[in-house]
Amino acid sequence: MATANSKSNRQSMDDWMFRLTALIELVDAWVTTAGWSTRRVEKKMQDSEFGTYQAPALLMQEGTTRVILEPIARSAPGADGVVDLYLLPAYDDIASLYFYADRWNIHYPLPGDPLVSVDEEIPPRPLSEGTLKAVLEEMAKNAA
User: Fold this and answer.
1) CA distance 65 to 56
2) I need a surface site. Which of 47, 58, 68, 114 has the fewest CB within 10 A?
3) Which candidate, 15, 51, 56, places its Cα nearest to that of 38?
4) How far apart are the two ends of the chain, measured CA to CA in Å?
5) How many angstroms separate the CA atoms of 93 and 142, rounded?
6) What is the tens place of the pLDDT at every residue in 127-144?
7) Given its phi and psi angles, is residue 38 left (phi above 0), alpha (psi -120 to 50 degrees) or beta?
8) How many CB atoms lie within 10 A of CB 127?
9) By residue range, what is the domain housing residue 85?
10) Which residues pair with 28 in a beta bridge?
């Protein structure tokens, strides 16, 4: 018989996989519309509560620019999910997505943003098609 705690933990994992899958599907639709090629892949994840599991990730390419949207953690302080978006193959130019306030928020310095020191946090933006497009365009410029 499952305990209330194990049901709660299972729900936590189910919520994470639902949020992650929905994010991958949304980003896939947005970038495909913008002309990027995509391929969904699985990433082996390790969780202290759930052990090893497979999570979806998304490879994206436009011309010679390759980017991956990769799950990092089911939870982090203040967030119910962390996903990184970065250039391949060197893991350069990283944007981080955190799920909090009932939405995905992207942390990435765009041109015109105020400069922040190493000790300060990049101002977050709610994830939207326009914000993602701006981040990907900036990453593509930095890849050249």
Assistant:
1) 21
2) 114
3) 56
4) 57
5) 8
6) 999 999 999 998 888 776
7) beta
8) 23
9) 4-143
10) none
Number of domains in the chain: 1
Secondary structure percentages of the chain, helix, strand, coil, to 5: 30, 40, 30
- Copy the structure tokens of residue 2: 């499952």
67 DSSP β-pair partners: 60, 87
User: Cα dihedral sign for 53, 57, 59, 65?
Assistant: negative
CA distance 16 to 56: 11
Q: Write out pLDDT tens, residues 39-81.
A: 999 999 998 888 899 999 999 999 999 999 999 999 899 999 9
Structure pTM? 0.86
